[in-house]
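For concreteness, we quote verbatim a single protein encoded this way:
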Amino acid sequence: MYDPQPLAPTIRALRRGDRLPSALVDDLCDRRDAVDDDVRAVLPETGRRERLTREATALAARHDDPASRPPLFGVPVAVKDIFHVDGFVTEAGASVPPTAVTGPESTAFARLRDAGALHFGKAHTTEFAYFAPPPTRNPNDLGHTPGGSSSGSAAAVAAGICPLALGSQTIGSVIRPAAFCGIVGYKPSYGRIPLDGVVPFAPSVDHVGTFTADVDGSARAAAVLCDGWEPVDPDERPVVGVVEGPYVEQATEAGRAGVEAGADALDDAGYEVRRVPMLDDIAAVNDSHDALAAAEFALTHAEWHAEYGDRYAPETAELIERGRAVGVDDLSAARAARLDLRERITERAREAGVDLLCSPAAPGPAPEGIDDTGDPIMNLPWTNAGVPALTVPCGRVGDLPLGLQVVAPFGDDEALLAWGEDIAAAVADVGPVGA
């Protein structure tokens, strides 16, 4: 069932005219029909194939000259159901009336559409992008979670339903499900992709992110989505730091083994790999981020919860109660701590002489069952600091993939993705790493 479709070669075929957008739409709708009763990545839509065929045909008519086709010409994209898309209801995985959370179309999706992408459909998410899970399953093993909260977006790409999907991350909701599903996840530097038109969780740490099967495809999508994108072509390989210390000790033995196997593969490929002890205060960082996210979530949901509180899942309601208990001074301190952490990460990388930092993308492989979306703890400090993060497949435990999380200093998204393609290739053949 695991059959992702790389984005970059799909783009090339569509723009050259080797593949018609309508033909791709037909293939992907066939794929959805074949697998999504089991995977349940995208929300149902009556007449999806007919709508997409009309849109693909009209797009091809507008851009009949291959030389002038836009960068994402004919690419179907699945959109996490917290992004507003004109003409489509936003449910946010919740039982609150959609009219309560509706809003103008998200800039992120509008940028994709303006670049020639097609809206394949909404993808399942946890309730309000928190922990109450949707029905989505991991395409690698249907008995395991795909992760959350961008569950459907990750599963749609991993199952070959779409070559590109939009998600969001407030703690670990892009990097973790990408790792669980064995694909590429990219979370940009904070603020590089606009958040307007997205149902908020905690605006100080919310990020828009993407899912693809290839780093080259991720870079192509980022060039459309990110503000001020300026492609780079680094002359030299980066020096790679492998993070050590209490932060990494939060991962399981398998999660840590995956990173070690990845480090060995990079060393064999000729990279300079250094050990970088850091984040000794990870417990305080975790507490600060948790307080910030809970407090801002409570503020975001104040009016909705007051009117529709009986429709919230118990986990989500409990988060709101915790958030209400966070004082104004504590919230202010937690917001300020983000910038301090960002500076400390940058300084530590500079001291160690490394360009990139590597760590587990999740504590281990995807947990069994779909009632638990897994722990985002390995993504938390990088999200809190707002630095760009990328995960690439690196090893497996049985049928379940592991991911190598690679982060760069704030604002170095272009370099991260430029280097990421070769790093992904270097670790692609890492095999089983243990139980």
The first strand starts at residue 76 and ends at 80.
